[in-house]
Amino acid sequence: MNSLAYTPKVAENTAHLYERVKDVIPSVEWPSHAPWVHAINELKRERNAVILAHNYQTPEIFHCVADIVGDSLALARQAENTDAEVIVMAGVHFMAETTKILCPEKTVLMPDMLAGCSLAESITAEDVRGMRKKYPGVPVVTYVNTSAAVKAESDICCTSGNAVAVVNSLGVDRVIFIPDEYLGFYVAGQTDVEIITWAGHCEVHERFTADELESYRSQYDEIDIIAHPECPPDVLAAADFVGSTAQMIRYVGENNPARVFMVTECSMSDNVAAQYPETEFIRPCNFCPHMKRISLEGIYNALTSISPTVEVDAEISKRARGAVERMLRVSEKQAYAAPQPELQSAVV
């Protein structure tokens, strides 16, 4: 195991970064993070690299070494605009694949190749072909939380934030919506299109229950419960607001709730709490074991060795990119009432 020292120089050079996370990382823990943070930020400059961090990453990664932060698709899209030669994905494998699809000329590093996703792994390209045979002529809308091979078998991709708009854009009576069943149920309730679902679930979001939400509501006089649409229908019915990752962050920023329960992965609450310290966050910690495979040490090692790299077969990449780009064209036509929220990133 590598070991780096917490020297006075490291303490001085990382003090401004600790200010970002002091409300969510105890001071006694910072000396164990700071040497890695300092070393990674030095390596980024040497390697002409940027780090993409998903909202579910821990605060020391999200706020202290990441250059670009956000949800999975936002990360890949912003990566297209960077001049960096090397991109490190602090997320899970399908996100690294999407980044490689959109940035084929760049080196994409995955600190831990075993960082997968229960939802992405719930369906295969063969499964999609089987759905097409069962429902001939019905278009396939695929959530971006899927492998490149699955995206390649799709007509168009979507995110949790634009799924309804994507489905409506097709102008058809019914669609195959894969793989998240609960997101599919949510979309079905927002459109007149018949939604044919696949029984895939996120192991983080499916653990929440409506009884749990009501229990928290009974404990506090004032609490806003905001949920991600990957949660079961009874959970969404018990929430005050349902929205994508970006929409949940925007809700906190625009409404300034005194107390909030974010029904999603627990590190996201930590990261948003660091941005909005005036709001009290209730944290029932359902964490993603796959996201938590990414560590500061793993990022450091990936930048040191420029490995492991993520590659996508050229033909699969071409077809998958087509499905993603069709979605982006729909997104560009949407009129957003407010700009996408931005959380702090290191950019050091």
Structure overview:
It is a single chain. The protein has 348 residues and is α/β, with parallel strands linked by helices. It has 3 domains: 130 residues, NadA-like (Rossmann fold); 113 residues, 3-Layer(aba) Sandwich (Rossmann fold), CATH 3.40.50; 78 residues, Rossmann fold, CATH 3.40.50.10800. The chain is built from 15 helices and 12 strands. The protein has a 4-stranded parallel β-sheet, with helices on both faces. A 4-stranded parallel β-sheet has the order 6-5-7-8, sandwiched between helices. The radius of gyration is 20 Å and the shape is globular.
Structural topology:
Layout (H helix, E strand, L loop, with lengths): L7 H14 L8 H18 L1 E6 L4 H4 L5 E3 L1 H8 L6 E5 L2 H10 L4 E3 L15 H10 L5 E4 L4 H5 L3 E3 L4 H7 L4 E5 L2 H8 L5 E4 L12 H10 L4 E4 L5 H6 L2 E2 L2 H11 L3 E5 L2 H10 L4 E3 L13 H10 L8 H20 L15
Parallel strand pairs: 1-2, 1-3, 3-4, 5-6, 5-7, 7-8, 9-10, 9-11, 11-12
Helix pairs in contact: 1-2, 2-14, 4-5, 5-15
Provide a brief overview of the structure.
43% of the residues lie in helices and 14% in strands. It has 348 residues and is of the alpha/beta class. It has three domains: 130 residues, 3-Layer(aba) Sandwich (Rossmann fold); 113 residues, 3-Layer(aba) Sandwich (Rossmann fold); 78 residues, 3-Layer(aba) Sandwich (Rossmann fold), CATH 3.40.50.
